[in-house]
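User: ok so my PI wants both of these folded by tonight, can you help

Assistant: No problem, let's get them done. Here's the first:
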Amino acid sequence: QWYQRRVRVKKTPAAPAYNAAKSSKKTSNPLIEKRSKNFSIGGDIQPKRDLRRFVRWPKYVRLQRQKKTLYQRLKVPPSVNQFTQTLDKQTATNLFKLLKKYKPETAAEKKDRLKSMADSGKTEAGKKPTVVKFGLNHVTALVEKKKAQLVIIAHDVDPIELVVWMPALCRKMNIPYCIVKGKARLGQVVHKKTAAVLAVTSVKAEDKNALNNLVSSVTTNYNERFDEIRRTWGGGK
């Protein structure tokens, strides 16, 4: 014939590569029946879910969360916003190391001291110990008399009106001040639950260098930046 007949050759597919995962797959036992769980009423126990979204939180938790949201959304005046600018971690660590050396005596230590004085027959108290001063009225009086060398203010005092004026007073009296995180952390220094402010009036000779370093750092970050801080608004995001 004038045309050549074309013969079609059927191509067989290539053998698939060896798959270890498929070959190791266990075949189900036909004797064991698969039972899917029924989570309807009266059925199987419900799986554990994250229910924090639906928890009725205590009132203080709700209040602090609402307060945080309001501080983000509303325009916060500079006098309140300055309490968000806290001391950096390294300087705060050095500060609390120094404060730890000048903790006031506990009630038990005072009791033992008075007992030993009574036993020995002493009537004079002796030299005043060098300790950290606390209490809002006490610290305010020390600042006004220019006896405080360094004032430490907590950032989370509630109501904030208790300490909102303290940075302005410290600057007016030319006393170094700083704002640190945690009224509870300040409270630990003076054996209380919380403390709004602390003041360092004097230190021993071996700690004067450490105090001077802290004072110079704090003065640069707070006292000298006071004009900038009082113009910086917060919130409004």
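One down. Here's the second:
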Amino acid sequence: SALLSLKDAASLSVRLRTPAMVEPPVPVQDVVELAERFLKHGTGYYSPVDPDLLSDDFVFRAALIGPLNKADYCYTMTTLQVYAGYPDLQPNAFAFTIDPADPFRCWFFTRATGTFTQPWNPFGQKLSALTLQPTGAAARLPTEAFSITFTPEGKVKYLTVGYVADRWEASMPDAHRSNTGGFGAVLGLFYAAGQQQLAKAALNANGRAVGNWLSNNLDKSLAKTRSNAEDLPPWYRE
């Protein structure tokens, strides 16, 4: 018959209304290699920050610090200049793995080490009088979980750092056991530099909020610990 049967018509209607299946994007670059390159050349922690390696909608998140957008992250890391005080700082990263739910996300651990051998001013140019003088202290940070999520173009979109996996490391051989009081990331380096109270003060949410208020309202040169909500990219949520 030239006319469609009811069954055929219903089938055609379903096919017309059903959108074609779209295959999810697949990384064209090796995500582990991208992560290793970023650790070596662009974090702002182990070496100066490289904005060109970050996407425009980049977000940084740590356990206490963040979220920070690209501009705030670059300014904060340039102010902290951790690599200046600890020029031999190394991540000693291991166990790189791709997230089974997101092929653009690479997870790994770090067990950073470094020596406080150079003057370190993590407070900004206006507070250069507070520059910390080197003590020669060797810092062994605890094992920390990191992740880096890349765009299809290979730029860093999301960076999570400093989630201490085992604060006490009771079973770790003494030569490798952390000596930073269980603090990771920059707080661990403050601790190793003899600034234990400064490391502990960063745990105070009210103190971090005051610092952000000062940055927003009185002194833009102060580094932020959290971007304003309206300045974060739309994709980010907590």
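Residues 205-217 form the longest helix (13 residues). Confidence is low (pLDDT under 50) at residues 12-18. Good luck tonight!
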